[in-house]
Amino acid sequence: MDLLQSYADDEAAESPPQNPNSQTSDQSPSPDSSPIRMLPSKSAAPIVDDTMLALTVAGEAARAQSKPLDPTHHLVGFNPTYEQLWAPIYGPAHPYAKDGLAQGLRNHKLGFVENAAIEPFVFDEQYNTFQKYGYAVDPSENSYIGDLDKLKECDAISVYNIPQHEQKKRKLEKKKEKMEEEGDEGDVDMSEVENPATDTWLMKNRKSPWAGKKEGLQVELTEEQKKYAEEYAKKKGEERGGGEKPEPLLEKSTFHGKEEKDYQGRSWIAPPKDAKAANDHCYIPKRLVHTWSGHTKGVSAIRFFPKHGHLILSAGMDAKVKIWDVYNSGKCMRTYMGHSKAVRDIWFCNDGSKFLTAGYDKYIKYWDTETGQVIQTFTTGKIPYVVRLNPDEDKQNVLLAGMSDKKIVQWDINSGQITQEYDQHLGAVNTITFVDNNRRFVTSSDDKSLRVWEYGIPVVIKYISEPHMHSMPSISPHPNGNWIAAQSLDNQILIYSTRERFQLNKKKRFAGHIVAGYACQVNFSPDGRFVLSGDGEGRCWFWDWKSCKVFRTLKCHEGVCIGAEWHPLEQSKVATCGWDGLIKYWD
Fold first, then answer.
1. What pTM was estimated for this model as a whole?
2. From CA 18, how far away is CA 16, in angstroms rounded?
3. Which Pfam families did the record assign (predicted)?
């Protein structure tokens, strides 16, 4: 018991003093209860000094407040200060820096490369100057860098602006060196100079003995050689168009009628007063009613007198142009002689009082129909293949001609001067057709293309060329003005729209005739219901416009039927011409 009492006394001494105000159920411990032992608390985590962490967080916050905005970012996640918004953009640091600004502004693997506004010539000049003299201009500071002593010595010259005296000095030095080389050669052995295997001979004979042309002996040409040379030069001149323009033939005209004016004083070209269309419906002719013969060679083109058709003009390969009466006697009224070679094309003015002729003698002539006088003559030294007058009443003084040298030339008839040239074709120009109320015109050429031009503007507004296209030596407009018919040399007639796009009408195609190799004229009836064309076998073909079917064929000529024209007033009458020298009238 004594031991237990001493143990209890020790417990009481070690335990802390009790609060006297606390109420306990048992002031003295029970001898049966176990002793309570309080152990000191310990943390398992290591002791960490968080002073640096706090400083780092505070530093990042301060840096974020003072850091300039990244111009590559499109979104700002905080409210920047005025200083941040207006802070200058600094160049990037090291390319491997973790700074977002540096990463965003990098445009090269070594950092940020800035374009300098300096011309290549200026850069080369300064680079070469620095390589030679050791100094150059610093464009950023507008000052010199490098060897400043050399700069003063050379008076700041660059390699590209050496002063005149310096250039002269260099020339003299080069000349002196050359003279010294030649002087040294005087001391060398002559055997070495004459030996091609030595370096001395090579230096002496720098220029090849075969350089330059050896001038042969001038030998007198024989008469036969002179004659051949003259003929060859003449032939080549003709092929190239020749620089010299051919001498025009003296024009003359012969009247074959009874009298040039009737008893009332009316001219022989005046249309009959009762000439008018009976109705608008046209019919296909069936029989031959008249033949005009007078040309000694083939007839290349025919044209009815505008609006009335009481006269018909013909162009012959015998270099003559004749005009024939249609209504009354049916005889030749006048012959116009002014070309030295075959006449290629003819064209009336709007009232028929004047007409144009184009010949293979390279001349275009403007005639007075009544008197047979030549009003004006035009030439460029090239062969005109087609001539046209502007159909507008106020532009009847404007002449367009398609030439053999790929050009369309425009003249003013009053002054005789060339006012415009349309030069885009790659071959001789064959046709000129005015469309769209005469504001535009379509041309065809040997280059197998169609080109559309604005009148007066030498720029193509529409170019039509396909691999399957052939040359189109004849084009005629439809009476309604919405279509043009083009005679293609692959034995068909193609229809193109004259609207904005000038598209090929694939649904309308007229075929059956043989025209390959011949510029057979294609035409329309005045009401637009029929298409007619000659062919290479002397026939005249008639097609229905709507169905595109062959309506009728007439055997008209022996040889080629080159031209066919529908009478402007007579509904069922057609004139044809051929290379047999005849003009035939069909009803």
1. 0.60
2. 6
3. WD40
Mean pLDDT, to the nearest integer, of 303-331?
A: 92
Residue 271's nearest CA partner among 240, 304, 298, 244 is 304
Q: With bands split at pLDDT 50, 70 and 90, how would you rate the model's confidence at 244?
A: low
pLDDT of residue 531: 94
Residue with tokens 């502004």: 105
Q: Half-sphere exposure (CA, 13 Å, Cβ side) for 171?
A: 7
Lowest model confidence (mean pLDDT) among 81-85, 351-355, 381-385, 541-545: 81-85
111-125 per-residue burial string, b: 16 or more CB within 10 A, e: under 16: eeeeeeeeeeeeeeb
- Tally of residues, the chain: 587
State the residue for tokens 């379509």.
Answer: 442
* Whole-angstrom distance, CA of residue 315 vs CA of residue 299: 6
H or E, element range at 65: helix 51-66
Question: Cβ-count burial of 285 within 10 angstroms (0-12 exposed, 13-18 middle, 19+ buried)?
Answer: buried
pLDDT at residue 555, as a whole number: 93
Q: How far apart are CA 348 and CA 533, in angstroms?
A: 21
Q: Is the dihedral of CA 343, 449, 477, 581 positive or negative?
A: positive
Characterise 473 by phi-psi region: left (phi > 0), alpha (psi -120 to 50), beta (else).
Answer: alpha
- Closest among 299, 340, 292, 336 to 319, alpha carbons compared: 340
At residue 421, the 3 state secondary structure works out as: strand
* Distances 369 to 313, 330, 454 between C-alpha atoms, Å: 10, 17, 31
**Closest-CA residue to 292 (of 268, 269, 314):** 314
Q: Are 420 and 398 in contact (CB under 8 A)?
A: no
Q: Which two tokens stand for residue 285?
A: 């002719």
3-state secondary structure of 457: coil
Give residue 23's pLDDT band: very low, low, confident or very high (50, 70, 90).
Answer: very low
Average pLDDT over residues 65-76: 73
- Spell out where 338-383 has E strands: 343-348, 354-359, 364-368, 374-378
Determine how β-strand 474-477 pairs with β-strand 460-464: unpaired
101-110, 317-326, 366-375: least confident range: 101-110
CB 392 within 8 A of CB 438: yes
Least confident of 262-266, 319-323, 427-431, 448-452: 262-266
481 conformational bin, left if phi > 0, alpha if psi -120 to 50, beta if neither: left
